[in-house]
Amino acid sequence: MFQVFKKLAWFFKDQWLRYLVAILALMFASFLDLIPPRLIGNAIDAIQFNELTRTALSQTLLIYGGLIVLTYAIMFLWDYTLFSGALLLERQIRSKLMRHFLMMSPRFYSKNRTGDLMARATNDLKAIMMTSGFGILTLVDSTVYMSFIILMMGFTVNWTLTFMALIPMPIMALIVYKYGGIIHLRFTDAQEAFSDLNNYTLESIRGVSVTRAFVQEAYDLQRFKEKTHDVFNKNKAVAQMEALFEPTMKILVGISYTIGLGYGAIMVIDNRISIGDLVSFNVYLGMIIWPMFAIGELINVMQRGNASLDRVNHVLKQVSDVQEPLAPVEVKMPLTIQFNDVTFRYPGLKEPQLININLTIQQGETIGIVGKTGAGKTTLFKQLLRQYPAPEGNLLINGVSIEQLSLDRTRQWIGYVPQQHILFSKTVRENLLFGAGKTSDDVIHQMLISTSLKSDIDALSNGLDTLVGESGVTLSGGQKQRLSLARALLMDPEILILDDALSAVDGKTEATIIEHLKEQRQQKTTLIAAHRLSAVMHADQIIVLTDGRITEQGTHETLMQENGWYKEQFMIQQMTEEVATE
């Protein structure tokens, strides 16, 4: 049960002073709580024997008032110190998770669903926070506070009466232990069910347009109902076990009260204790109810925290496929990029997606990459983006293996416009400046002109300050594509990768954008993958990929002299455009 504290030892070691102050203050507050019942007992005895004077009563009330003020101050100290520490732990683990998510490769996200990761970053972190805050409170109260009460009952009243009243304690400990194990299993199942629901909800919201298009709203609602019902049942199972704690405790406390009152009354009759002692004893017996409940709460919180911490650690222990080199080689500028017999296969697949790729790219060149769908164009780009482990063969930058270069350095060189355009739920301006930082409006407007986006942005309600909505939902496909392109160009990267980035624009707009690219990208390397061959006609080199192999290579003019796939595809596209124009 207490393994969770061992797993969090790194945090408690770092925050030892905070927790030491909180625990000592909590223990001192617990000690102060034991004084008033004794004062009440003494006052009752004084009344019984006609010994209570006005002076003694005034002193008692004065002490009582002082204890109230002192207890308030001490309680504020331990409460603030302890629970601020719990919030600090939640913040640290959440930041650690976020850093981990940013460092992980695509394989990690293919193995872990988004909803599941979100559940770990929300519900599980809340359970861990409860462990480091409320868990510490219940631990101290169920051990130190209970011990203080028992010692006070024994030393100031009677040990025999104390032992008799605490007979139910071992039974309670055994029952609580059994309950704790069951709660751990059921809570883990409940968290897994919540992860499934979270993931399904995300997918359902993202795919709402497809759901409507296929008239599957009723089916989607039914699936959602089944998921929520599963979460409800599993959380209900946890609640059922937790609900058993309170009546179990009440029964055991009731037995203790019965023993304490019955046997205590006999001892009063036998003059072994006074009436004041019996009153104090019963007040202490009432005070011990919370520590008894605290044992149950402690088991509950520990099991929840342990289950959640295991789930979070399972994510944090997963290592990225791509690692930072121990001693990275410093390369200031990517003057040459060489693919020497590069072969690559995705993890878990037998067949390679790139086979014996040989390609040399000089700084300032524009490279066109074409081929059928699934030929390996995006996979080729991913080697430069370092989203997967280094391929077989050699991928060199300035003659240095890309594995020996810093991840940050290689990625800083690259501006990437992917097929799936990712826009954030921010303004147009914030999306444009995502990688470029502070940039003047004049530069932004010039870039909008270069990407044929100026008139579109001016037509929006608030121009550059218009919110684009979730994933750019307020923009058309072509606008999102050009906005992604403008964002990459504002970075002025050494290497610009356009992965079919002009597919959603018309031929005239494409031609305008290409002309601006030729002007702005002089002395900078540009890689363009496209299905429309008109987007790569101007390239210094064009390669044709077929099933992961380079089958044709050269300029537009040289490839047109060959009777290969490129010439055939170009002629087909030209005829299609002519027909469309007519």
Automatic annotation (TrEMBL):
Residues 337-572 form the ABC transporter domain. It is a multi-pass membrane protein. One of its GO terms (cellular component) is plasma membrane. The chain crosses the membrane at residues 16-35, 61-89, 127-153, 159-177, 251-269, 281-301. Keywords: ATP-binding, Cell membrane, Membrane, Nucleotide-binding, Transmembrane, Transmembrane helix, Transport. CDD domains: ABC_6TM_TmrB_like. It holds the Pfam family ABC_membrane. The keyword Cell cycle does not apply. One of its GO terms (molecular function) is ATP hydrolysis activity. The keyword Coiled coil does not apply. InterPro entries: AAA+_ATPase, ABC1_TM_dom, ABC1_TM_sf, ABC_transporter-like_ATP-bd, ABC_transporter-like_CS, P-loop_NTPase, Type_1_exporter. PANTHER family: ATP-BINDING CASSETTE SUB-FAMILY B MEMBER 10, MITOCHONDRIAL, ATP-DEPENDENT PERMEASE MDL1, MITOCHONDRIAL. This is Multidrug ABC transporter permease/ATP-binding protein. It comes from Halolactibacillus alkaliphilus.
